User: Which sequence fits this backbone?
């Protein structure tokens, strides 16, 4: 569990209800684009086997499965104040980490210097903004280290090397690696898989990004995002009391 998260940036979650919208994270069986925005009052009809996942601007994730016919807001919990909204987001993070497992979620992994770095030393889910370069990261930079990267079908292999003292290594944009979103990573001792979930560039609200990362299982990155937000003295005093 992340400690001190309840002291995070109240204003990032304090969005007027009238200005709030829902951002589409996943859509199946319905003609909606990932990253598009919906009003909570929208009527949604999902066929059997359909699925719609949206995240509210306070970070609350709403997941619907077909058959379904009704307003989106009918499936949403009531809106809360900034402190409770963040507490709910942290609770969702902990629940998701428990379901995914500590290894794949990275809930017990070393803290990332930036939420957009990808820890190359462990398996699991990763989140990346569309069109952004991949920045691989390792915690231990004491030695030279080489990693091999291959898609699931092993149709090609790429290698990259960290020199002693280097903790990051930037590579080409994801599209330049043939649009691959799932990789095998191999170091000198083991092989494991990493899956990348792309987030549209139009999504920028911290609470939405955190909710999206949590939903996709990118817990290590969500922790880094929450920790990087400016703190609120009001929230800190509430936390102490």
Assistant:
């Amino acid at each position: 569990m992340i400690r001190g998260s309840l002291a995070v940036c109240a204003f990032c979650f304090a969005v007027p209800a009238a200005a709030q919208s829902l951002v589409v994270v996943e859509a199946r069986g319905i003609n909606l684009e990932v990253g598009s925005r919906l009003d909570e009052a929208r009527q949604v009809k999902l066929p059997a086997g359909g699925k719609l996942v949206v995240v509210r601007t306070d970070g609350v994730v709403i997941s619907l499965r077909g058959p379904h016919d009704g307003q989106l807001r009918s499936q949403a919990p009531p809106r809360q104040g900034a402190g409770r909204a963040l507490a709910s987001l942290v609770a969702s993070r902990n629940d998701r980490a428990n379901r995914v497992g500590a290894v794949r979620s990275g809930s017990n992994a070393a803290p990332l210097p930036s939420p957009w770095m990808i820890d190359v030393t462990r398996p699991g889910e990763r989140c990346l903004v569309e069109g952004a370069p991949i920045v691989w990261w390792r915690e231990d930079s004491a030695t030279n280290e080489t990693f091999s990267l291959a898609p699931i079908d092993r149709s090609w292999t790429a290698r990259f090397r960290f020199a002693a003292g280097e903790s990051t290594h930037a590579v080409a944009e994801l599209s330049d690696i043939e649009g691959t979103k799932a990789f095998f990573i191999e170091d000198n001792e083991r092989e494991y898989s990493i899956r990348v979930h792309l987030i549209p560039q139009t999504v920028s609200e911290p609470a939405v990004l955190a909710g999206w990362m949590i939903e996709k299982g990118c817990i290590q990155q969500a922790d880094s995002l929450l920790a990087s937000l400016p703190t609120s003295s009001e929230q800190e005093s509430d936390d102490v009391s």
